[in-house]
């Protein structure tokens, strides 16, 4: 937005989504006030992701990296809407004359309310006249007779004629006093001082939560949708996301719910079929929990998985990110098929996921996930041939990364993945591994035993 546009228009309006900006511009045009009102929009989602030191370049880079690691299309959207990104918007705010009034539009949701507190923090040194147009509160004032349990929590949920009344009245809203502004500023400092990456609007305030806070709501939505499904219990992921938002009354975005769905798939709570590219291309269902196993009635059954540490000539480790564990990098690998020797399994999985042919040398560690009954075997292996060529339906990205004890947490975020990778990097000796065939005679098919 040019400084000339800021100078020409007498009032500035700030919203926290491009959709809200479009609605506001159209409504100003309908009431004949478009020319004198400048509408600015952030294209971000403040209810998710880190917000610590967000007014600094380092803080914004940390936030950007968090999004890039979890959402495959984030980089493209970031480039396409550059003028609405944090960096550019902060420059735009700084260029607004201090005498020009700013109306900040928001609703009773953690996204808008966190954004509101951030903007007031950014403007704390300025004597800017500021109004807050809270559409949830304005709805209750304009429609006190409305029979709703909860007022609309976002602008997009408000009927057009009611929203038009809000826009017509916004210039008559009271200016924020100094005490209220200081309260919002201190609330921002408290919010941004925590490490939460999910924020919800609960009982009239923004509450920082663990990322899995909405997982129970997702599982409940899948179960409800399954009851109306005639496709072997599988339901379209998009239908599940719609059900979730109908019940939680929170603004956290489709992409975040999709990310949590894939976390639940990874953790063994959900099964899926289809292509993990978009919500309309795959279906999910709740996997049965083995109560008999938990009571000790059945014989124990475990899943065996394999992975391998492979370095290039520079000593860099080959890591990848999957669609269902997009929050972390990890060593390539996968589950062992029935009757498949472990060393053959890791050769196959490595080739399928990365296009690289490897030679297993030995085992560096064995790890048990007691919750999912998974035994993970980690190999040390050597590069043989091939160039990186990923399976796009499963793998987001694969590349060689220089890892050490100090930076590993920046790449591998899950503690169980981190510990087994460190063990493999430090291993000086390998555990012997043999494959035997016993039917009926004993036949040694292969043996790995390596000393450094």
Automatic annotation (TrEMBL):
<dbReference type="Pfam" id="PF12395">
    <property type="entry name" value="DUF3658"/>
</dbReference>
<dbReference type="InterPro" id="IPR015797">
    <property type="entry name" value="NUDIX_hydrolase-like_dom_sf"/>
</dbReference>
<dbReference type="InterPro" id="IPR022123">
    <property type="entry name" value="DUF3658"/>
</dbReference>
<dbReference type="Pfam" id="PF08874">
    <property type="entry name" value="DUF1835"/>
</dbReference>
<protein>
    <submittedName>
        <fullName>DUF1835 domain-containing protein</fullName>
    </submittedName>
</protein>
<dbReference type="InterPro" id="IPR020084">
    <property type="entry name" value="NUDIX_hydrolase_CS"/>
</dbReference>
<dbReference type="InterPro" id="IPR000086">
    <property type="entry name" value="NUDIX_hydrolase_dom"/>
</dbReference>
<keyword id="KW-0378">Hydrolase</keyword>
<dbReference type="InterPro" id="IPR014973">
    <property type="entry name" value="DUF1835"/>
</dbReference>
<dbReference type="InterPro" id="IPR020476">
    <property type="entry name" value="Nudix_hydrolase"/>
</dbReference>
<feature type="domain" description="Nudix hydrolase">
    <location>
        <begin position="301"/>
        <end position="438"/>
    </location>
</feature>
<dbReference type="GO" id="GO:0016787">
    <property type="term" value="F:hydrolase activity"/>
</dbReference>
<dbReference type="Pfam" id="PF00293">
    <property type="entry name" value="NUDIX"/>
</dbReference>
């Amino acid at each position: 937005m040019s400084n000339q546009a800021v100078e020409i228009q007498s009032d500035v309006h700030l919203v926290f989504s491009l959709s809200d900006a479009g609605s506001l511009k159209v409504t100003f045009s309908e009431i004949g006030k478009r020319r004198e009102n400048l509408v600015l929009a952030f294209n971000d989602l403040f209810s998710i992701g880190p917000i610590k030191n967000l007014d600094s370049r380092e803080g914004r880079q940390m936030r950007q990296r968090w999004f890039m690691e979890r959402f495959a299309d984030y980089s493209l959207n970031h480039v396409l809407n550059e003028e609405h990104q944090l960096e550019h918007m902060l420059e735009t705010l700084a260029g607004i004359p201090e005498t020009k009034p700013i109306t900040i539009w928001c609703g009773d949701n953690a996204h808008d309310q966190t954004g509101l507190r951030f903007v007031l923090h950014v403007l704390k040194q300025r004597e800017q006249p500021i109004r807050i147009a809270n559409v949830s509160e304005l709805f209750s004032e304009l429609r006190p007779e409305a029979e709703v349990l909860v007022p609309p929590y976002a602008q997009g949920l408000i009927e057009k004629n009611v929203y038009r009344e809000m826009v017509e009245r916004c210039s008559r809203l009271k200016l924020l006093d100094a005490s209220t502004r200081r309260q919002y500023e201190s609330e921002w400092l408290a919010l941004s001082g925590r490490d939460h990456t999910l924020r919800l609007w609960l009982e009239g305030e923004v509450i920082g939560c663990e990322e899995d806070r909405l997982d129970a709501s997702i599982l409940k939505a899948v179960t409800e949708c399954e009851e109306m499904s005639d496709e072997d219990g599988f339901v379209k992921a998009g239908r599940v996301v719609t059900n979730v938002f109908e019940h939680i009354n929170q603004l956290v975005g489709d992409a975040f719910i999709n990310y949590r769905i894939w976390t639940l798939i990874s953790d063994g709570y959900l099964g899926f079929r289809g292509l993990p590219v978009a919500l309309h291309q795959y279906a999910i269902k709740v996997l049965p929990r083995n109560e008999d196993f938990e009571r000790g009635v059945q014989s124990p059954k475990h899943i065996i998985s394999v992975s391998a540490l492979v370095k290039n000539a520079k000593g860099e480790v080959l890591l990848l990110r999957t669609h269902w564990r997009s929050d972390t990098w990890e060593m390539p690998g996968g589950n062992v098929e029935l009757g498949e020797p472990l060393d053959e399994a890791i050769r196959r999985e490595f080739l399928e996921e990365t296009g690289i042919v490897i030679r297993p040398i030995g085992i560096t560690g064995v790890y048990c996930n007691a919750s999912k009954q998974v035994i993970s075997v980690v190999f040390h292996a050597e590069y043989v041939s091939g160039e990186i060529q990923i399976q796009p339906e499963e793998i987001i990205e694969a590349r060689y990364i220089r890892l050490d004890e100090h930076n590993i947490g920046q790449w591998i975020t899950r503690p169980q993945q981190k510990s087994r990778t460190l063990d493999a990097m430090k291993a000086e000796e390998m555990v012997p591994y043999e494959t035997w065939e016993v039917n009926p005679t004993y036949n040694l098919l292969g043996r790995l035993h390596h000393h450094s």
